[in-house]
From TrEMBL:
Family of the protein in this entry: Belongs to the HIBADH-related family.
Residue span(s) of domain 6-phosphogluconate dehydrogenase NADP-binding: 9-154
Coiled-coil region list: none
The keyword DNA-binding is annotated on this UniProt entry: no
Keyword annotations of the record: Oxidoreductase, Signal
One Gene Ontology MF term: NADP binding
Positions of the NADPH-dependent reductive aminase-like C-terminal domain: 161-288
Species for this entry: Amycolatopsis dendrobii
InterPro entries: 6PGD_dom2 (IPR013328), 6PGDH_NADP-bd (IPR006115), HIBADH-related (IPR015815), HIBADH-related_NP60_sf (IPR051265), NAD(P)-bd_dom_sf (IPR036291), RedAm-like_C (IPR048666)
Entry protein name: NAD(P)-dependent oxidoreductase
Signal peptide start and end residues: 1-21
């Protein structure tokens, strides 16, 4: 098999792909890079990378092939143009569990090994404390290349099922965007009276920190399916109190459309006779 066992190829040099390639270079690894727009290879070539003239040439250069492109369709389009036999393909393109499983099956059929990954960082964080990446697929493949993965940040292996990295990634992003929704709504209300969001921010940050115990408490309830223990502010009470949020928003000239989905779920769950339970029981309405 051709290719250097300590080297790596990176396909895709957007902000994230460039950051991944840069981290490998910083760690002293030989890196081959490819991008549709060849100009994006220049900064990395200046740091010691080798620019390939085609994706096929790039894949031939290394056993370890890291893919970071726009989406699943882009990944498939590029990989179909190359020979993958004997390679290890690590897909760090954002996608879904189903896409990861289907891609894993196809890559394996081409004679290659496959891992999927979910990057929990923005490009400037790569290689810095706080960055971490989920990986899923064969454990032995993960173990073989862990040293390379550790250059990106913490390496979290989550299981043999190739879809599990994307599942963990999207679950964390769901929590993040849920928080963003609340923060944006809060600032819209504050600004509706001309008040400073900057001055309000410490109050909001402190309040969210105080409420962070909900993460662990809700996890216990979600796993057990028991929403009736240690109820303090029951769902029925919260459904009634929630009514003030859209009313106040309307009075202030602020849309409540960010909050509307949760409001409707609370009302439905209460109407179904679960008002005495904890708010976590709304999760039952999310199951299909």
């Amino acid at each position: 098999m051709s290719g250097n066992a300590t080297s790596a190829t990176v396909l895709g040099l957007g902000a994230m792909g460039s950051a991944l390639a840069g981290a490998l270079l910083t760690a002293g690894r030989p890196v081959t890079v490819w991008n549709r727009s060849a100009d994006k290879t220049k900064p990395l070539v200046g740091r010691g990378a080798t620019a390939a003239g085609s994706a096929a040439e790039a894949v031939a250069a290394s056993e370890l092939v890291i893919v970071c492109l726009l989406d699943d369709a882009s990944v498939r389009e590029v990989l179909k143009t190359v020979s993958l036999a004997g390679r290890t393909v690590v897909n760090l393109t954002n996608g879904t569990p189903r896409q990861a499983r289907e891609l894993a099956e196809w890559v394996t059929e081409q004679g290659a090994k496959f891992l999927d990954g979910g990057i929990m960082a923005i490009p400037p964080m790569i290689g810095q404390p706080g960055a971490f990446v989920f990986y899923s697929g064969p454990k032995d493949v993960f173990d073989t290349h862990r040293a390379a993965f550790d250059t990106f940040g913490g390496s979290n292996y989550v299981g043999e099922d190739p879809g599990l990295a994307a599942l963990h990634d999207l679950a964390l992003l769901s929590g993040m965007y849920g928080q963003f929704i609340g923060v944006l709504q809060a600032y819209a209300l504050i600004r509706s009276e001309g008040l400073s969001a900057v001055e309000f921010a410490p109050l909001l940050g402190g309040w969210l920190t105080a409420m962070s115990n909900f993460v662990q408490e809700a996890a216990v309830e979600a796993d057990s399916g028991d929403y009736t223990r240690n109820v303090v502010s029951n769902l029925g009470m919260q459904a009634a109190a929630f009514e003030n949020l859209p009313i106040a928003a309307a009075d202030q000239g602020v849309s409540s459309e960010l909050l509307a989905p949760l409001h409707q779920l609370l009302l439905r769950r209460a109407a179904d006779g679960h008002g005495a339970e904890n708010l976590t029981s709304v999760i039952e309405l999310l199951k299909k």
